[in-house]
Design a protein that fits this description.
The structure is a homodimer. By secondary structure, chain A is an all-alpha fold. Chain A has a domain at 73-206: Tetracycline Repressor, domain 2. Chain A has helices at 22-38, 45-51, 66-90, 96-113, 115-123, 130-156, 165-182, 191-206. In chain A, helix 4 packs parallel to helix 7 (165-182) and helix 6 packs across helix 7. Chain A is elongated, with a radius of gyration of 18 Å. Chain A starts with 21 loop residues before the first helix and ends with a helix. The model of chain A has no long low-confidence stretch (mean pLDDT 96). At the A-B interface, helix 6, helix 7 and helix 8 of A face helix 6, helix 7 and helix 8 of B. The structure holds a DNA duplex.
Chain lengths: 208, 208
DNA sequence: GTCTATACACAGATAGAC
DNA sequence: GTCTATCTGTGTATAGAC
């Protein structure tokens, strides 16, 4: 019997390479796990230190504030997401169907491989001041634009048919984002197959 | 230029009828808005009171703790969701296609009409103790079962074709849940049309 | 019903010893 | 590098006056 409603199922805090060396990297990983499971405001500096056997004060040798620590995680998350989308776009074909599939695969993969990072980047960024969130917003706007433009090309070529490009892209990106909440390795679901299935769903939505 | 990454776009805190009379109802609405925008741990009792021109201590005349206040909101959210799904199921036809459409419409509608309530029910419930979350978990398990069974019937009848019923239902429910994050009335999107569009997307996913 | 006052715990952050 | 100690603010919650 489940007796709680966790924000996400993942248990392991994963960061994309290269993880900063030494204590800084270890602090990032510990903070990521706690921020993802309990939220930024629900996590104390003391709790992060305790995960590493450190007292609270030590963390200030590596991060000047708790908020800067969160900002770095949010930035890493948005960078990883944007990098994957970019790579999917440039390595693919000119066919809108293949482009959408490549982008959705990348979108889903990053949410399954780094669920905690995706979760924190998406749902804890609200705790950041405008200056600290701005670099991530730039990446986010571009990621949204990538999705939209690829779908638009398919529409222009008469390959896709949707009543609203906005509703289609929110649906497609939304189902991928949700993966961060439910994915866990022990479900026995291969990430490549998951990504392929969701890419197929996206095409079905766009090309009835 | 956007300078923050809000958890959701909605500005108004809406609760389904009947909203409790008097101060209790007003406290619920104020807490809902703040919990949705800033999170449970990011919201103080003082801040909730300030929204209503009340001092912190007054709230304890209506709720015995901040956690019980959250618990009531989470329960109201799960009840509204479950009630809508149930109603959609019993009022529909026996055709799996019509059943899925009815359930997805209801699912999407409740996320668009009560985005803050849906958001808090889904993403802040982790802050509740096992005893306080349990009533909502019962409803949640049943809502998941409704989705799954309706899709399964369509598969059994040879109407739907998906490689994994789990991946299909997570995709369909996930795109609906995401609506709570982006929907706002001034987008000019009619909720009925939104629900209809997403219901169509669900069918496209299930019936290629 | 609403206030002031307050108890008590814990938060983020800093200073300086070892 | 890690510690103890501490500053200062804020948190939840309660008691009792008006």
């Amino acid at each position: 019997m489940i007796t709680s409603l966790p924000r996400l199922q993942a248990e392991e805090a994963a960061l994309p390479d290269p993880i900063p060396d030494g204590s800084k990297g270890r602090i990032l990983v510990a903070a990521l796990r706690l921020f993802a499971k309990q939220g930024f405001h629900g996590t104390s500096i003391r709790a992060i230190g305790a995960e590493l056997g450190l007292k609270a004060g030590n963390l200030y040798l590596y991060f000047e504030s708790k908020e800067k620590l969160l900002a770095e995680l949010v930035r890493l998350g948005h960078e990883a997401h944007h990098r994957r989308l970019r790579r999917a776009l440039i390595s693919g074909s000119a066919d809108p169907i293949e482009q959408v599939k490549a982008i959705v695969r990348a979108h889903v993969r990053v949410h399954a491989e780094y669920p905690m990072l995706a979760y924190v980047a998406n749902y804890e960024a609200h705790a950041l001041s405008p200056e600290l969130i701005e670099p991530s917003l730039v990446l986010r706007r571009e990621s949204v634009a990538i999705f939209t433009e690829v779908v638009q090309r398919g529409i222009d070529q008469g390959i896709f048919h949707v009543s609203s490009i906005f509703l289609a892209t929110t649906a497609i990106s939304g189902m991928g984002m949700r993966v961060a909440s439910w994915y866990r390795p022990d479900l026995g679901i291969d990430i490549a197959e998951l990504a392929e299935t969701y890419a197929q769903f996206a095409i079905r939505i766009l090309q009835p």
